[in-house]
Amino acid sequence: MLQIEKKKCFIELGTFLGQFSVDANTKNEQVLHNDLFYDAFISLLELSQSHNGWFTPDQVYFAVQSWAEALTEENLNSWLSKYTFDSNQNPAKTVGLILAGNIPLVGFHDFLSVLISGHKVVVKTSSNDQHLIKFLANYLIAVDSRIADYITFTDGKLEHFDAVIATGSNNTARYFEYYFKDKPSIIRKNRNSVALLNGTESHEDLVGLGEDIFRYFGLGCRNVSKLFVPRGYNFDAFFKAIYEQRDVIYYEKYANNYDYNKAVFLMSNFQLLDNEFLTIKEDSSYASPISSLFYEYYDDIETIKQQLKNDADQIQCLVSNDLVENSIPFGHTQKPKLWDYADNVDTLEFLLQI
After folding, report:
1. Are strands 224-230 and 292-298 parallel, antiparallel or unpaired?
2. Strand bridging mode 185-188 / 292-298
3. Is the pTM of this model over 0.85?
4. Taking the C-alpha atoms of 109, 193, 74 and 44 in order, what is their torsion angle to the nearest 10 degrees?
5. pLDDT tens-digit readout, 52-77
6. N or C terminus: which one in the chain shows less Cβ crowding within 10 Å?
7. DSSP β-ladder status, 192-196 and 120-124
8. Environment class of residue 276 by beta-carbon count within 10 Å: exposed (0-12), middle (13-18) or buried (19+)?
9. Which pLDDT belongs to residue 271?
10. Quick check: helix, strand or coil at residue 328?
11. Strands 279-282, 272-274: parallel, antiparallel or unpaired by DSSP?
């Protein structure tokens, strides 16, 4: 099966996903296989929160819309244009995927990358997100049945693979590194995202920062969990801007985390800033608990830039108003392009070398 044929399958999938929105689902009669998949996908989206309490309709629809926007012919061509694909030089291998399940469809980019590079994929899903990607795989197979020969899902031990891409915590990463030491691999560990502020940010910037913090309840590695602010920074404008996210406290799982983490901080006599749905604590760590945000003061921006450079292996995204090279604009951390690779490791380049 040629790459152009696989690419067409993903373009059709993007068109299919484009029918679904948290505001309203709009059926397009021109979309392939709607008779089989349209109503079934709506049912799956409605059931997602019963499969994983964090997968609320708003969050799942956001993930679906993001992939609908990504899977266009223009985006796929732009992404693939920098690579050289030679099926004779690089015969198809079998790549094992061990997926995370912290946010909806978090492993879909790896799934796409393996298939579009010409390899076969064996997928071990997370128990927290095992339905959505299987549904999308079935849609691809309906578009072109030949792609079924390239896709396998397994619930048991991952076996019979030539390379692996595995995502987990720092603890599981050590296990992965040992278990897969004899195979080409990408092993992903914990990372967090940070924002660097200098006090000149507009209200709109800080509203966007609220999206970077609260999308997916802060569960993703691309969610901002730490702020760097100039000494003496006044948080009033920040709190005013993120007030748009106040409804997050009405989700029980988030509220339980807010109550618990706030209580732990207060019992430890930590000084907090609190707006009744987010606690902010001065802390040098990058990883803050759900419903909490860490911050750290700086006196010299060049010094903090060097610190961020030194800690690059702990940071997924860096958000600022161009204060640091290659930083991401406010409000865009959860809108990665196809060429924005996790951990800055070029997945396609890895796949073309195995």
Report:
1. parallel
2. unpaired
3. yes
4. 50
5. 999 999 999 999 999 999 999 999 99
6. N
7. unpaired
8. exposed
9. 94
10. strand
11. antiparallel
Phi, psi of 120 (to 5 degrees): -95, 155
Q: Which two tokens stand for residue 127?
A: 């128990």
Angle (CA) 98-129-346 rounded to 5° is: 45
CA-to-CA distance for 113 and 118, rounded, in angstroms?
Answer: 9
CA Rg, the chain, in Å? 21
Contacts 24+ apart (CB under 8 A), 21-27: 21/61, 21/65, 22/57, 22/58, 22/61, 22/62, 22/65
Q: Which two tokens stand for residue 227?
A: 């702020």
Report the distance separating Cα 16 and Cα 232, nearest Å.
50
Using a 10 angstrom Cβ sphere, with 0-12 exposed, 13-18 middle and 19 or more buried, the burial of residue 64 is: buried
Hey, what are 212's tokens? 């970077």
* Contact criterion met (CB below 8 Å) for 281 and 264: no
Nearest Cα to Cα of residue 336 among 312, 316, 315, 350: 316
Cβ contacts of 30 within 8 Å, gap of 6 or more: none
Q: DSSP E strands: which ranges in the chain? A: 94-98, 120-124, 151-153, 163-167, 185-188, 192-196, 224-230, 272-274, 279-282, 292-298, 315-319
- Answer left, alpha or beta for residue 58, where phi above 0 means left and psi between -120 and 50 means alpha: alpha
Are 349 and 90 in contact by the 8 Å Cβ rule? The answer is no
Check if the beta carbon of residue 134 is closer than 8 Å to that of residue 204.
no
